[in-house]
Write a structure and sequence with these properties.
Layout: E1 14-16, E2 19-21, E3 25-27, H1 43-54, E4 59-61, E5 65-66, E6 78-79, H2 86-98, E7 103-108, H3 116-119, E8 123-125, E9 132-134, H4 137-156, E10 161-166, H5 171-176, H6 191-194, H7 196-209, E11 215-220, H8 231-243, E12 248-252, H9 279-288, E13 293-296, H10 302-310, E14 316-319, H11 321-325, H12 329-334, H13 350-354, H14 362-373
Parallel strand pairs: 3-4, 3-14, 4-7, 5-6, 5-7, 7-10, 8-9, 10-11, 11-12, 12-13, 13-14
Antiparallel strand pairs: 1-2
The structure holds flavin mononucleotide (FMN).
Flavin mononucleotide is lined by residues 28-31, 63-64, 106, 165, 167-168, 218, 252, 263-264, 296-299, 319-322, 349-350, 359.
Length: 374
């Protein structure tokens, strides 16, 4: 395959609301498992994100960064919960900028999925359940404030934007979803009520960072759960997010309870037609709401990415596992080598991160070891 001049549009700057990036490729938020125990930036994390920026993506989004210790989902996650994180965060953004990249912090709270051993606090969700309890109104308000403080800290630390994590069954996604949210107060029941927390976060973050700083959000298009959040609802919430001044929405889908339809879907993608798990939903949202969209999930080839953008399904595509396998993938495509990503979506990349070594592509390592034995 050769590089076609018509494909150049993929490598030209694009405005995602107030955030302009150099090309249409984004590294989607990916827990690297490389932050220090206290949530601060490490050299290894910085090296990894700098390598991604040098590898050609127009934007790097950090992994899930907790806005409150109580919202920490797992080990070696980045923290944006305390001013003491600022020197590390500032060093990270400076290094990525020096490499010519742009970097966004993903602001998150795990809600009922918080790891209580690590957080040292109760796990909280929209409703009571085993091992967690429903948030009070006061706890919702203080969490809104925590998102705002974290956004301000990120702005002060040099991030180009913040992204509010409202996908994948974490706190804000739990509130959006009738599968998890059984409340009967102003935060439960109707879609307007279920979206109240997320909209309050976006409004309060906007106040904290000012009108000219880009605010992004990652949201499910569908929970793929019986009685869960649906595409129709995602279209409506996208409109609400636009009305409160969101710059750009990243479309994902699924939760940890969605079986094989979880956000990080397992299984090799066998044909270009099967790429882009949420492309139909993104197309529907794009047709209904005039808001810049990033589409994530199962995108493995340049041609599919190009077509998604050319057809107006999204303004940019984002990738997670393909960039673990090959951080230089975008530069390779830019050079004219359009072979698809070698990622086989086996999710073995989580394994080294769970043991404290940080994410890496295990199947590539196994292949290399096999070749060396021959
Ligand atoms: C190791 C790993 C960690 C992830 N961590 C996050 C995260 O912190 N925040 C998030 O929104 N999504 C996270 N994801 C999901 C990805 O951003 C993406 O939505 C999903 O992997 C589908 O995209 P892909 O097919 O390009 O991998 C993670 C995925 C992987 C593989």
């Amino acid at each position: 395959m050769t590089y076609q001049p018509a494909d150049r549009a993929m490598f030209q700057p694009v405005a995602l609301g107030q955030l302009t990036i150099d090309n249409r490729f984004v590294r989607s938020a990916t827990w690297e498992g490389m932050a220090a125990e206290d949530g601060s930036v490490t050299e290894k994390l910085t090296r990894t994100l700098v390598r991604l920026a040098k590898g050609g993506v127009g934007l790097v989004i950090t992994g899930h960064a907790y806005v409150l210790k109580q919202g920490q989902a797992g080990p070696w996650k980045l923290g944006v919960h305390h001013p003491s994180m600022k020197p590390g965060l500032t060093g990270l953004t400076a290094a990525v900028h020096e490499a010519g990249g742009k970097i966004v912090a993903q602001l998150a709270h795990a809600g009922k999925l918080a790891n209580v051993e690590l957080s040292g606090a109760e796990a909280l969700g929209p409703s009571d359940g085993e091992g967690f309890r429903a948030m009070t109104e006061a706890e919702i308000d203080s969490t809104v404030e925590a998102f705002a403080r974290a956004a301000h800290l990120c702005r002060e630390s040099g991030f180009d934007a913040v992204q509010i994590h409202a996908a994948h069954g974490y706190l804000l996604s739990q509130f959006l979803s009738p599968y998890y949210n059984k409340r009967s107060d102003a935060h439960g029941g109707s879609l307007e009520n279920r979206a109240r927390f997320l909209l309050a976060v976006v409004r309060r973050v906007r106040l904290a960072v000012g009108p000219e700083y880009p605010v992004l959000c990652k949201m499910n298009s569908d929970d793929f759960l019986p009685g869960g959040f649906t595409v129709d609802e995602a279209v409506t919430v996208a409109g609400m997010l636009k009305d409160v001044g969101l710059d750009c929405l990243e479309i994902s889908g699924g939760t940890g309870d969605s079986g094989r339809l979880m956000p990080v879907r397992p299984g090799r993608i066998k044909s270009p037609r099967a790429e882009g798990y949420f492309k139909e939903a993104a197309g529907r949202i794009k047709a209904a709401v005039d808001l810049p969209l990033i589409l994530v999930g199962g995108i493995r080839s340049f041609e599919v990415a190009r077509k998604l953008v050319a057809d107006g399904v999204c303004d940019a595509v984002s990738l997670s596992r393909p960039l673990i396998r090959e951080p230089e993938l975008v530069n390779r495509w830019k050079s004219g080598d359009l072979r698809p990503s070698a990622c086989v979506s086996d999710n073995l990349c989580f394994r080294p991160a769970m043991s404290g070594e940080g994410i890496s592509c295990l199947s590539e390592k196994l292949l290399k070891e096999k070749a060396a034995r021959r």
